[in-house]
Amino acid sequence: MIRSDVLKALIPMISEELVVSNIGLPSQELHLIDDQPTNFYMLGTMGLASSIGLGLALAQKKKVIAIDGDGSVLTNLGTLPTIANNPANNFILLIIDNGSYGSTGDQPTYAGMKTSLARVAEACGCEKVVECAAENTAAAVQAALDGDDMTIIVSKCESGNIKVPVIDMDAPVIRHRFMTEVSRRNA
Amino acid sequence: MSINRKIVSDFIKNRIEFVTTVPCKQLAGVIDEIEASTNIYHIPSNKEDEGMGLCAGAYMGGKRAAIIMQNTAIGVTINTLVTLIQYYNIPLPMLISYRGEIGEPVACQVEMAVHTKAMLEQLKIPTYHFHQPSDAEELNPILNHSFMAKKPVAILTDASFWQGA
Question: What is the pTM of this model?
């Protein structure tokens, strides 16, 4: 399974949830497969999906799923100690780990070599870290949604991309639509 | 009221409930006040761009957020300021220690100080320079301005400001 297959399998459980989606192809694929006002698409700023997701989870009550990539987590590795030391039990960080920088031409990342992001997360102090095969990602996300613990999921999948259009929506429109939905759900 | 307490009191007056910090010697007192405040969730970040991501998320979750950092961070965060904070119209007060100004003991700090205002000007970020303690009287309206305009604002606080305070 490649990332877009993982995303497709996740739609039934994340469609109604607050989702912060990583820059580039992950956001474009999610937008193509299942555009929702509950999705916050990052159009730039590599590495910050997990930080935005944590800030959002700490500021309000609803569950938040940040869909990140191995390359982006490596870019912002300082995020894992911050997450570990500021636990939000409504936060799920899903790292889709295909061992490559997918949006830029599938150059290999260190996560596909010697570095285990699951073990890095554990060493940073994250208490619930689940590493799973791509096929088991939907079940892992469902279990995290059903539970009450902050969960880091590292989904090991194959690298590869589908053809997707860029997101045409303006950034303030994405933000405003998302905030309106966040506010409505917390009312 | 101490200057540190006044700053935090103005944050609270502007309903800021979420503050991220990256430390600087000059900011130690205000960071202690933030940590002690029961009205504010204090979340130290490891790098300032990470902190801006946290602030953007908190803002979208309904909590006004601010960042406290050193001016060297402007160099670190240009991409985040432009492609996240400005692109999505997110308000972000930045209380900045303006190292490298008169009274600075560390020569290397001057190297970033000479670029700080030029970078902020290039980014079209409204910038306010606090040089003496009475300048802090403007903090309250500056914070209000950031949230009204949904823009980042930079408050540069130099050594003279902190020494006089």
Answer: 0.97
